[in-house]
Amino acid sequence: MLFRNLTLFRFPLSLREALETLPERLPEHALRPLGPLELSTRGFVSPFGRGDEALSHRVGDCLLLNLGGEDKILPAAVVNQALNEKLDAIREQEGRSPGGRERKRMKDEVLTDLLPRAFARPSRIAAYLDLSLGWLVVDSSSRKNAEAVVSAIREALGSFPALPVNAESSPRAIMTGWIGGEPMPDAFMLGDECELRDPVDAGAIVKCRRQELDSDEVREHLKVGKQCFHLGLVFAERLSFVLGEDMVVRKLKFLEAATESLEKDDRQSLEAEVDATFALMSGELRVLLERLEAEFSLSSADA
């Protein structure tokens, strides 16, 4: 259950009272099975897996949610093949080629025929709300997926003015400075991965992996004007991740110093395991997010 990516949103602390009622509202917005003619559906599912009725889990001021989805798999090639068979039949039987409007109607008929037989692909996106600090943290590097979680919470509450995290200081300039030799903030160390780009359109891109980032080889790229768009970092020897200029955290790993307590605990149930893992994760990320907020001057939704 440990998150692997973090897309971050801020929400006003004035929403806390409304968000306290969110767990009781979630059953009305639970994931329902796809209808025979539906392409997709979204709704909340249990953090404890199938068969559990709880649609959220709270530890302290942090509320864990899971947005589930089902999407029909209907490849364009299958639709086009079925449509072409219909078109060929008309040409052969009636000696004519259907026009654009008739083709569209026929394609709709093909979709109506195929959808009930299409397989549904399940999906799940985990997220949590830090009610005391105004963070929504989504376990995805996809802005589209993260926005789907925001929309689902907004639908359940009626209003949820969450905003993507915004850095008042330039992340690109700060990260480029760190690689260039400027002092690292306390508890932060360079990792072994970065992406450097010429800031001009269609400029050169250099991707480094398993590379010492404070080396002369990397700094030569900075001398010719390249800037850092993604940077591998290690925080307090407990977390490693790649930070993007969009302030999305990717490839997040909880290191041994952070997970040691989980390995020692002897938990007897899935609920106890989820509880312990979520408590550890939300606690570690609270410290990290507070530091990122300070180093990059992240704005709050109340600002």
Describe this structure in words.
The protein is built from nine helices and twelve strands. With 303 residues, the chain is α+β, with helices and mostly antiparallel strands. The protein has three domains: 7-74 and 117-163, no CATH class; 76-116, no CATH class; 171-296, no CATH class. Helix 3 packs across helix 4. It starts with 6 loop residues before the first strand and ends in a 7-residue tail after the last helix.
Key words describing this protein structure:
303 residues, alpha+beta, 3 domains, 7-stranded antiparallel sheet, 9 helices
Q: How would you briefly describe this protein structure?
A:
This protein is an alpha+beta fold and 303 residues long. It has helices at 16-20, 22-25, 76-94, 100-114, 143-157, 171-179, 216-223, 256-264, 270-296; strands at 7-10, 40-45, 56-59, 62-73, 119-130, 135-138, 163-164, 188-197, 205-209, 227-235, 239-244, 249-254. It is globular.
